[in-house]
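Researcher: For the record, we're logging two predictions in this thread. I'll number them. Prediction 1 follows.
Model: Prediction 1, sequence and structure:
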Amino acid sequence: MVGPKKTAPAVASEAAVQAVLRRGAARELSPEEEKVMRMRLGASPSRGQALERAGRGLADVEVELLAFEIEAFLKLRERRERQERARAAPPHPSRAKERIIRALRKKGR
């Protein structure tokens, strides 16, 4: 009596798995397994795929806390952008300022 034929497990490279995940949902994986693979490999979902809603079933307090966190993040990002713009922009010479400095120098002689 001959038993069932054993097959070797399939091995896939990271690039191949990322390409499959980029094309769409993996049919052979459960949603949880697919999520883990995407997080592990850094594969983003396809552009046509709808994103999950993370806020389902949250209590009012949790929703408010999430709103405060988002607001704080946006304010922090805006402040950083303003600081970057202030560092990047060179100071513009002012005619009035130059006249005041020349007048003070003349007065000091």
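Researcher: Logged. Prediction 2.
Model: Prediction 2, sequence and structure:
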Amino acid sequence: MGGKKKLGLKQMERVQSRKDDEEKKKKEKAVALSKERKPSGIVPPDPKNEKIVGELKKMRVLTPYAVASRFNIRISAAKDFLEQLEENGVIQLVSGSHNIKIYKAD
């Protein structure tokens, strides 16, 4: 009596082609996202490089996350890099705890 009617051949073809198109778009999107990601570097940049120091001085606040995202390095490498810069006197520690340290350029 009630219930869903059976689809005709032409309607079934349309439904199947739409599903195929959606799956194709999802695969293309997944491939595009995987190509965009680059592995982050382990080695921090040279703290004596004037170009890098100049770029850091443009930033208002220096945190390990900000440096890691700017130079595409790991956060642990960014922490080491900021500590080296502090020892060299390029930046100054503003605030910090055992979790995060905030620096500013001199």
